[in-house]
């Protein structure tokens, strides 16, 4: 890791251990991090001195050998991180403590998808979400974007849904923000958040799939993000599930996005309404103005028991399951988390996903994979971006500078 010292990495290992298991003692930190007793003791002493870690104020417990067991946990009062997710329509911002727990969140409509409009929205949203906080140290601002990110050059290489190419986003907004900016693909940010604080239950592998304007994916293997050789891993939306189907914006036919992305759900609902003569709750919700149909309305109608809406979502879910079969065969993840921008995932939808996956996956690959809905909802990407800001603050030696000041 160029530019990342062993000491910086050790600092992060201690902080991550306390993030995963609040209440560890110094002895347990030695066990969980694999670091030496002297190293852990020194780092904990420095962290306590700077307000990053605190000892539990309650009476210490007795250990099995009769020694005092003093619990340690990350402090949420002096050090904060901001996470931002840019979607195709909104800017979602959160303030998190060092645990990654959101203390305040906002959803701000984007001022269009132009670079200038999105940047203005981002800067104003960060200022607003931090408005109620005092002189706490802001360690960084993480920004999750829907596209390919070059974190080294601090730019968005390609964000098709925003129409962006080679945008130096971090350099553009950092002068107007209270701390350094770190970029990440928003689906990877969502995977980080669900891994640490969401649907994951102590597993070491997780795949996070978001359904929005497109279908995106973040992959955690062995507790680490997998990004691929060129940073383009996770393009699950471009797995072909309907050969000969509609042409995708990528140029191929039958990609998952063309049958399971938000616009595809709305389009297929319109097609089904025309074919069935408008007999559906959906038509009533939009006063028969079919152009007003959104994925959220389709989901709302399905939750009310509408047959047409349920049929549309069931078909999308089965196609999603076909793509998950490829994921299961290749990665065999413990958990696949679905985060749908149009609403909370129902068990019926998940059952249809399982149906599509089991029909196409190698039995041994998919039998141990659990599919579930996101537990963090619309905040997942922003929380994950805040985690990136915290981790990079440590790894780039900025924590070291703060400790020595």
Structure description:
- The protein is an alpha/beta fold and 405 residues long.
- The chain has 3 domains: 6-74, Winged helix-like DNA-binding domain superfamily/Winged helix DNA-binding domain (Arc Repressor Mutant, subunit A), CATH 1.10.10.10; 79-192 and 380-404, ATPase, nucleotide binding domain (Nucleotidyltransferase, domain 5, 2-Layer Sandwich); 202-375, 2-Layer Sandwich (Nucleotidyltransferase, domain 5), CATH 3.30.420.
- It is 41% helix and 21% strand.
- The chain contains 15 helices and 17 strands.
- The chain has helices at 6-20, 26-33, 37-49, 115-129, 169-173, 186-197, 257-260, 262-276, 281-285, 295-303, 307-331, 347-358, 363-366, 380-395, 398-404; strands at 53-55, 61-62, 68-69, 72-74, 79-86, 90-96, 102-109, 137-145, 148-150, 155-159, 164-167, 181-185, 205-211, 215-221, 224-225, 335-340, 370-373.
- The strands form 5 sheets. Strands 7-6-5-8-12 form a 5-stranded mixed beta sheet. The chain has a 5-stranded mixed beta sheet with strand order 15-14-13-16-17, sandwiched between helices. Strands 9-10-11 form a 3-stranded antiparallel beta sheet.
- The model has no long low-confidence stretch (mean pLDDT 89).
């Amino acid at each position: 890791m160029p530019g990342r010292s062993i000491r910086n990495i050790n600092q992060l290992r201690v902080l991550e251990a306390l993030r995963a298991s609040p209440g560890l003692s110094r002895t347990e930190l030695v066990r969980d991090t694999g670091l030496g007793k002297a190293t852990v003791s020194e780092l904990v002493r420095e962290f306590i001195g700077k307000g990053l870690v605190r000892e539990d104020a309650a009476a210490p417990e007795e250990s099995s050998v009769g020694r005092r067991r003093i619990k340690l946990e990350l402090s949420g009062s002096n050090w904060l991180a901001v996470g931002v997710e840019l979607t195709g329509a909104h800017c979602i911002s959160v303030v998190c403590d060092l645990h990654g727990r959101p203390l305040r969140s906002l959803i701000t409509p984007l001022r269009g998808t132009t670079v200038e409009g999105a940047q203005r929205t981002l800067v104003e949203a960060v200022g607003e979400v931090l408005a109620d906080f005092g002189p706490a140290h802001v360690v960084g601002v993480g920004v999750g974007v829907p596209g390919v990110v070059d974190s080294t050059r601090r730019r968005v290489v390609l964000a098709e849904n925003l129409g962006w190419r080679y945008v130096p986003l971090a350099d553009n907004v950092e002068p107007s923000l209270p701390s350094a900016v770190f970029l990440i693909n928003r689906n990877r940010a969502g995977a980080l958040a669900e891994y640490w604080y969401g649907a994951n239950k102590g597993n070491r592998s997780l795949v996070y799939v978001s359904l929005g304007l497109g279908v995106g994916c973040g992959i955690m293997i062995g507790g680490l993000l997998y990004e691929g050789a060129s940073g383009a891993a996770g393009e699950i939306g471009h797995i072909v599930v309907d050969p000969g189907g509609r042409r995708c914006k990528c140029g191929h036919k039958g990609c998952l996005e063309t049958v399971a992305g938000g616009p595809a759900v709305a389009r297929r609902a319109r097609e089904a309404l025309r074919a069935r003569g408008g007999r559906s709750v959906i038509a009533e919700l939009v006063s028969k103005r079919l152009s007003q149909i959104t994925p959220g309305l389709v989901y709302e109608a399905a939750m009310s028991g509408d047959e047409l809406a349920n049929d549309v979502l069931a078909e999308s879910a089965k196609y999603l399951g076909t793509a998950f079969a490829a994921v299961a065969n290749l990665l065999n993840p413990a958990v696949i988390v679905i985060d749908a921008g149009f609403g909370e995932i129902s068990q019926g939808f998940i059952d249809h996903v399982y149906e599509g996956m089991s029909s196409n996956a190698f039995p041994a690959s998919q039998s141990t994979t659990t599919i579930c809905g996101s537990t963090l909802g619309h905040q997942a990407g922003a929380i994950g971006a805040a985690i990136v800001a915290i981790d990079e603050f440590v790894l780039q030696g900025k924590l070291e500078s703060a400790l020595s000041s």
